[in-house]
Amino acid sequence: MAAPAPQPETRRWNRDDWVRGYTSLTEERDYWIDDIEGTLPPDLRGTLYRNGPGLLERGGQSVQHPFDGDGMVCVFDFTGDGRVRFRNRYVQTKGFVAESKAGRFLQRGVFGTQKPGGWLANAFDLQAKNIANTNVAYAPKKLLALWEGGKPYALDPQTLETLGEDDLGGALAGSANFAAHPRYDRRTGQMVNFGIQPGLSSTVTLYTLDADLEVTAQHRWEVPGFAFIHDFALTDDYAVFFQNPVTVNPLPYWFGFRGAAECLVFQASRPTKIHLLPRAGGRMRTYETDACFVFHHVNAHLADDILTVDSIAYETFPSLEPGTMYRQVEIEKIAASQLFRFTVNLATGETKRERLMERAVEFPSVHPKRVGQPHRWAFMAMADAPTGNAPLQGVLAYDTKTGTAQTYSFAPKGYVGEPVFVPKPGVAEDQVEENAGYLLQMVFDAPRATSSLAVFDAQNLANGPLARLHLRDIVPYGLHGQFVPARNP
């Protein structure tokens, strides 16, 4: 008798549930969370700042892609005595204020959102709206809301009042922009970030900032070709950039038919370039690896002329078909994001790429004391199924030493964004265990039709959350955030 045919794996997610997690939060709230399930650890004291698209439609018109939604910063204040206060405020960008008054879209979005009126109303309008919706950077006197297509917006860290567009003391002159994925030096705590002026030849500017977010150094390099780069990796001496093999056909954008990002073309026949930019300035070094597309890096380190970079890579650019609304996307047909390890021999130029996991993952991080150093543990969001592409529904801690992972899934009714790793406080640097800490994970809970914040012990993910803080509304899936520990009283 022939063996029975293998049965297809049961899908543990529902499209309607997933899409509901993109419901706009139109109200600005401020309240103490009174629905807490489990017990909060008393040493978790400080503030979690999160940024992401909060408003996804205006005047009855939806954004084409959630990345075009207006930035909304959410705050969780942990007091350490079991109480947590939640607040959210919209970043009052010039475009947000103007469109709120008009009740409709007035500017085009990078990812395809158009002004009402068809292509004729959008043709040759090349000024995209700064939506300040991707990440935050904290200083005691100001909080920056970041969006890589423009300058940051400064907010009051306590009230979240918008203070205005910030050129960082003149460092961001003219049309200079400031990326939305800063890195932090493990030794000094200084922030390192970049800006790109793309074109036939692209200019990359690397910035170093102090604890007050004042620019203390900047260096520039010319990179041949068009550069679309969201993130970079940091070593003690270098900033590592992956230049994805994409080009752009601007005509559909100029003539009002598509958004700028819809005009990107992935070129699988070209290599992905790896650029090493000396943080102190100097000659750029460039290497090549097999074609792939990278949004986010886990970490990098350099030892004995061998550069190792762990990254989340796609085999091709994960784009939607032009004109496709994100609510109708067939995510199973889009390239999955997977964990890869890239190694580069700086002496010989030889490169190697190795897939470490089949499971779709995104939004990676490591212990801040391991930035630029070999790491054992990497934390990220994951799809529930071990193979194929699907919405993110859980958290994962990957052990690079053993090649195994700890996981926890909120499937079939929970959907997640970026997990934020918070190191255990009060640990001497020479005694740091790099998975000793907490993971803070936003979850959309479909049966409740609300969002929650789950708090995990990062060393025991499989045991489930220590606590879940249930909110009163849906907070749309966010992008990036930062935890700021409380100062000692």
Question: What layout of secondary structure does this protein have?
Answer:
Elements: H1 15-20, E1 30-32, E2 36-38, E3 46-55, E4 57-58, E5 61-62, E6 70-78, E7 84-90, H2 94-102, H3 118-122, E8 135-139, E9 142-146, E10 153-155, E11 162-165, E12 183-184, E13 191-197, E14 201-209, E15 215-224, E16 233-234, E17 238-243, E18 246-248, H4 251-254, E19 264-266, E20 272-278, E21 285-289, E22 293-303, E23 306-314, E24 338-345, E25 351-355, E26 361-365, E27 377-383, E28 392-399, E29 404-409, E30 414-423, E31 437-445, E32 450-457, E33 467-470, E34 480-485
Antiparallel strand pairs: 1-7, 2-33, 3-6, 3-34, 4-5, 6-7, 8-9, 9-10, 10-11, 12-13, 13-14, 14-15, 16-17, 17-20, 18-19, 20-21, 22-23, 23-24, 24-25, 26-27, 27-28, 28-29, 30-31, 31-32, 32-33
What is the CATH architecture annotation?
A: 7 Propeller
Cα(first) to Cα(last) distance is 74 Å
Helix content: under 10%
**Domain count:** 1
Low-pLDDT runs: 1-8
CATH topology, what is it called?
Answer: Methylamine Dehydrogenase, Chain H
* Helix/strand class: mainly beta
Q: Hey, roughly how much beta strand do the residues contain?
A: 35-45%
- For the residues shown, what is the average pLDDT? 94
Order of strands side by side in the largest beta sheet?
1-7-6-3-34
Rg: 22 Å
What's the assembly state of these chains? single chain
Care to count the β-strands?
A: 34
Separate helix tally? 4
- What composes the largest sheet? 5 strands, antiparallel
How would you sum up the global shape?
globular
CATH class: Mainly Beta
